[in-house]
Give the backbone structure.
Amino acid sequence: MKSVIKIGNAQGFWGDIVDAPQRLVESVPDLDYLTLDYLAEVSLSIMAVQRQTDPSLGYARDFLSVLASLTPHLRAGRPLRVITNAGGLNPRGCAAACMKVLREQGCGHIKVALVAGDDVLQQMMHAGSEQTHWSNAETGESVLTIRDRLTTAHAYMGASPLVEALRQGADIVLTGRVADPSLVVAAAMNAFRWSHAEIDRIAQATIAGHLIECGTQVTGGIATDWLEIVDPVELGFPIIEIEDSGSFVVTKPPGSGGKLDLLTVKEQFLYEMNASDTYLSPDVSVYLDDIEFHQEAPSRVRVIGARGLPAPATCKVSATYRDGYTASAMLTIVGQDAVRKARRAGEVVFERVKRAGFELARTNIECLGTGDSVLGLVSTPVSTSMLEVVLRLSAADPRREAIDRFTKEVAPLVTGGPPGTTGYASGRAKVRPVFGYWPCLIPSGDVRPVVELMEVTSS
Amino acid sequence: MTATSVNVRLGAIAAARSGDKGSSANIGVVPRTSSAFQFLREYLTPERVLAYFAPLEPTGIRYHVFPKIECLNFVLEGILAGGGSRSLRIDAQGKALGQAMLEMPIDVPADLLGELVPHHSMKRPEV
């Protein structure tokens, strides 16, 4: 058993740099595990739309080209294991597509495991009003208010089924919704043969996973001091070097760009963190207040002190439901009185939609450049002195035809709106479905993960 | 303001990062020095932060101080007007809130600024 294992994360979301996994694997020849995180809160509802048009979709297709880029290393027998939630809504469809890639690339020896069981949509759709655990965890509303409009419902699984897949010999573990840090926890639990009772070590690995789950956000991305980072073009993706004790270093590939120090690690540690001394995951509850960060060397920060408490008895579910339609359009308005002209133009558009017979449920006019993105917090400009502003118009309504009408009323501003109206090159705004987000907490025992090992046949 | 304090933007003595949690957002504040942390843990009361963000109509605030790593975390409830794909705002996911937080004007003891690298702009932009 190695005394230190290296776990890298090379995708922080669906849409991240596509050749990052290949570059990370090539720049760190002794990387043991590669994790790829594709799923944000609403990613699964986007996948649901894709699956409506083609039932074989519903997963992060980017992963197929990533996998193809890794096949030279897999073919050469490099002992690298990949753990990813690219399976999205359809891990089975994703696995089938992956097998095809592996077969075509001559990687017949590679074992792919599928971890499913996170999809609880059927249970939720049949929930009765007495089953209060499906109620909205933020608002307390009953599931009955949205039950007929549900599109997805996925429980956050923990590391256990991923570890099971690795122990069965999987080189590539494909799953759907798992808690983001569990990808890293699974790697460490498998490498060091930790049992579930090792809660302090699992707590450390959970913090490791939390720090790298968003990829370059810990290596200089979105850092307050971003303008000072070295070589942002070659921004390095993060690596965890973890020991059997659970103590770990967060670092990045030698020679890569970016910035990894106490400040960036602290910023990312706090990212999407609750106002609490405890971080909850399906694997462990982590007590945070004794955590310490120590800069050991340039681009190397050691993390110690996370303590484990028993995991919560409930499992978080992220559900989404259809909630009407939306669109937003942008135009740039230039010249004297730019802000007044922009705002008046926006009012004209919404008035025309109204006279066409559509009282829109919700509308918003933003004059970007004046501080509207944070409603006047950042600056209070003297609007008469601004010679350029971006007008952003948004609307939402249960009726698709109402939003469709709104999108058609924007272009006429090019000829009938204020002077200096420009920037319409991208064409008519797209009508998009709105997905409401519905978090809830169900008994952990109601989630039953399934592990299935597949093998590439040489046919 | 007393004779020994100066009015600067929060960004002169701290870094910040924000993210979304449903229709709420969190803002992590990382003071740049230990003395800045000791000052801010008293100064940045939840009431003061909630009042600053009032234009965005948050419905409540929760906060936690991390004493060992010297950081503060604020969760502004309901600040994202629905959040996710529901909000009509350009910043539906609260990505800009950390930067907005750093523009908060604060009165700090003058000696706090002495130990800081001077390139972090102290002043809010003139408008």
